[in-house]
Amino acid sequence: MIMTVTSMLDNVLRIATRQSPLALWQAHYVKDKLMASHPGLVVELVPMVTRGDVILDTPLAKVGGKGLFV
């Protein structure tokens, strides 16, 4: 199936983002660029919390170090 921009406009594009200031800035930047280049596109930001966001009292290396922010 080939999707065209027209058929994509009927849907909502959701972008998952961490809630850190940098992640939110990046997500808003991408959202703004997408909406500017695709008028009518609905883009929603979906906040998420990762394991790395929750574990604040232990060095990340001791928790596993990799895959904590996915």
Order of helices and strands: HEHEHH
Oligomer: single chain
What does the overall shape look like?
A: elongated
| Strand numbers in spatial order across the main sheet | 1-2
How much helical structure, as a percent, in the residues? 40-55%
| Beta-strand fraction estimate | 15-25%
The pLDDT mean sits at 79
The top level CATH class name:
Alpha Beta
In the CATH scheme, what's the topology name?
D-Maltodextrin-Binding Protein, domain 2
In CATH, what is the homologous superfamily?
Answer: Periplasmic binding protein-like II
Write the CATH architecture name. 3-Layer(aba) Sandwich
Structure overview:
With 70 residues, this protein is α+β, with helices and mostly antiparallel strands. It has a single domain (5-63), classed as D-Maltodextrin-Binding Protein, domain 2, CATH 3.40.190.10. Helix content is 41%, strand content 17%. It is built from 4 helices and 2 strands. It has helices at residues 5-8, 21-37, 51-54, 60-63; strands spanning 12-17, 42-47. The chain has a two-stranded parallel sheet with strand order 1-2. Strand 1 (12-17), helix 2 (21-37) and strand 2 (42-47) form a beta-alpha-beta unit. It is elongated and about 45 Å long.
Summarize this, please?
The chain has 70 residues and is of the alpha+beta class. Helix content is 41%, strand content 17%.
Q: What are the main properties of this structure?
A:
single chain, 70 residues, alpha+beta, D-Maltodextrin-Binding Protein, domain 2, two-stranded parallel ribbon, 4 helices, 2 strands
Topology:
Layout: H1 5-8, E1 12-17, H2 21-37, E2 42-47, H3 51-54, H4 60-63
Parallel strand pairs: 1-2
